[in-house]
């Protein structure tokens, strides 16, 4: 008889979600599908995106853009999502090369530029990524969420004290995004992590 609860329920949920997303990507029947993964901090977006990138079901490689690389500072959730939409997702949808600049968190300024090939698939992950405007550019839209205490523990284990003092401000931006855009309603796949 199997145990009542698994010691790695988080990993199991991400594995199941990865399989669902890969099936959805295959069903798109395109060489350059776009997957957008949104969710609250610590819910598992980055881990899920990395798993999907490793398991990418197409023969061509996939590009991964984490909004953590784009947000212009701790107050930049909405602006980071706009940058991804206007400079990466829209050009990709038009068959044009997209360009984004990495945010240097230490210097608090833009750093080097990165190109996104429109011929290849694309995963964009980060809080704020899924809006009505970006959903129109996505082939697969994913919402990831979990209990606040679990999310906070995972986020602080990952980012440490640097994130701890910004948690409340960031959570307020997440709430504003959820109220304004209702990303959970735009998602074709919803993932609940423990």
Characterize the biggest β-sheet: 5 strands, parallel
Helix content: 40-55%
Enumerate the spans where pLDDT stays under 50 for 5 or more consecutive residues. none
Distance between termini? 22 Å
Mean pLDDT: 95
Assembly of the depicted chains = single chain
| CATH superfamily (homologous) name | P-loop containing nucleotide triphosphate hydrolases
Domain tally? 1
Give the beta-strand count: 7
The CATH first-level class comes to Alpha Beta
Q: Using only CA atoms, what is the Rg?
A: 16 Å
Overall CATH architecture: 3-Layer(aba) Sandwich
Structural class: alpha/beta
Give the percentage of residues in beta strands.
15-25%
- What characteristic shape results from the CA principal axes? globular
User: What is the count of helical runs?
Assistant: 8
What name does CATH use for the topology?
Answer: Rossmann fold
Give the helices and strands as they follow along the chain.
HEHEHEEEHEHHHHE
Describe this structure in words.
Helix 1 (9-28) crosses helix 2. The protein has a five-stranded parallel beta sheet with strand order 2-5-1-6-7. Strands 3-4 form a two-stranded antiparallel sheet. By secondary structure, it is of the alpha/beta class. The chain starts with 8 loop residues before the first helix and ends with a strand. The mean pLDDT is 95. It has one domain: P-loop containing nucleotide triphosphate hydrolases (Rossmann fold, 3-Layer(aba) Sandwich). The chain is 44% helix and 21% strand.
């Amino acid at each position: 008889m199997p145990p009542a609860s698994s010691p790695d329920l988080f990993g199991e949920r991400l594995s199941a979600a990865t399989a669902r997303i890969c099936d959805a990507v295959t069903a798109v029947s395109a060489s350059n599908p776009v997957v957008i993964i949104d969710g609250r901090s610590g819910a598992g977006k980055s881990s899920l995106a990395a798993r999907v990138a490793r398991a990418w079901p197409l023969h061509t490689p996939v590009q991964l853009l984490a909004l953590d690389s784009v947000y212009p500072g701790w107050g930049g959730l909405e602006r980071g999502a706009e940058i991804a939409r206007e400079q990466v997702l829209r050009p990709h949808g038009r068959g044009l090369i997209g360009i984004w600049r990495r945010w240097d968190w230490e210097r608090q300024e833009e750093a080097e530029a990165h190109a996104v090939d429109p011929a290849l698939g694309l995963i964009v992950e980060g809080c704020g990524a899924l809006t009505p405007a970006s959903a129109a550019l996505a082939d697969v839209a994913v919402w990831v969420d979990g209990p606040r205490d679990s999310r906070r523990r995972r986020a602080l284990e990952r980012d440490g004290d640097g994130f701890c003092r910004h948690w409340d401000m960031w959570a307020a931006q997440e709430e504003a995004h959820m109220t304004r855009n209702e990303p959970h309603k735009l998602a074709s796949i919803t993932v609940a992590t423990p």
